[in-house]
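pasting input
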Amino acid sequence: GQQLNQSPQSMFIQEGEDVSMNCTSSSIFNTWLWYKQEPGEGPVLLIALYKAGELTSNGRLTAQFGITRKDSFLNISASIPSDVGIYFCAGQLRAGGTSYGKLTFGQGTILTVHP
Amino acid sequence: KAGVTQTPRYLIKTRGQQVTLSCSPISGHRSVSWYQQTPGQGLQFLFEYFSETQRNKGNFPGRFSGRQFSNSRSEMNVSTLELGDSALYLCASSLGQGRKDTQYFGPGTRLTVL
């Protein structure tokens, strides 16, 4: 099935560093979402973006919905050990009722933070 | 508000058997979506139910089916299990309508097929 191109695939950083990851798609979406997943758990919603150009923050996390509607990025500032996990981007296209529910996911970015 | 719950959390089955997974959405949510997560394919959309009707479907064989009840709880069934069906099955609930509709995931059911 279709997947978004998410990069980088993994990151090893020191505590206190900033992190940036992004997602690109060959098709447009009108919703971009960022989730974090920890071992043995389901994805937890971090940030939701609903409008092209939108920039939204959630604590140390900032995400933007690209103007072309084909990309999004997530920044984490001043990383801490509990930021460890897998970060997923997801796009959703609402073009009538048949698009509801379907999220298309990136492959994930594995984040490791060294104390 | 209680989150999305899934039962059971773990299942071990053998090839050829069938399995039923259950999902209880967040109170007030009428949409339930199901996803399969594997190391090779990542997170793949299976189907979505809204008000007891399947509203959207991904590219999975007919062995994968689901249903939704009047209280919005949903079940997913996989018949004639294959080794490749081993995966984490996630359900997500949402209001199911509106421009800012957002999906919230449960903890998943880990299915192992031997």
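fyi The mean pLDDT of chain B is 95.
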